[in-house]
């Protein structure tokens, strides 16, 4: 019986660990369009674009709270500013 209980605990733990991560959002500057774009990490499609960095930060904060995801902010030159 002790062996069966251990297996049940392992199965329960395994199912709890199956949390799907949606990744994180990235705020970066688009030099061609001269605006700040918001996209998912590794995605080609842009979720939203804003004229100022402050507007983009407000929007990405809302998205990250609603979708329980993190975000990364880049400077105009493409270097990481904030994680």
Notes on the protein architecture:
The structure is a single chain. With 83 residues, this protein is of the alpha+beta class. Helices cover 36% and strands 31% of the residues. A 5-stranded mixed sheet has the order 3-2-1-4-5, covered by helices on one side. The termini are far apart. The mean pLDDT is 81.
Question: How is the secondary structure organized here?
Answer:
Layout: H1 2-16, E1 24-30, E2 35-40, E3 46-50, H2 53-67, E4 70-74, E5 80-82
Parallel strand pairs: 1-4
Antiparallel strand pairs: 1-2, 2-3, 4-5
Annotation field: number of helices: 2
Uncertain segments of ≥5 residues (pLDDT<50)?
Answer: none
The fraction of residues in strands falls at 25-35%
Q: What Rg do the Cα atoms give?
A: 19 Å
Provide the helix percentage.
Answer: 25-40%
Averaged pLDDT, please? 81
List keywords for this structure.
83 residues; 5-stranded mixed sheet; alpha+beta; single chain
Give a concise summary:
With 83 residues, the protein is α+β, with helices and mostly antiparallel strands. It has two helices and five strands; from the N terminus they run H-E-E-E-H-E-E.
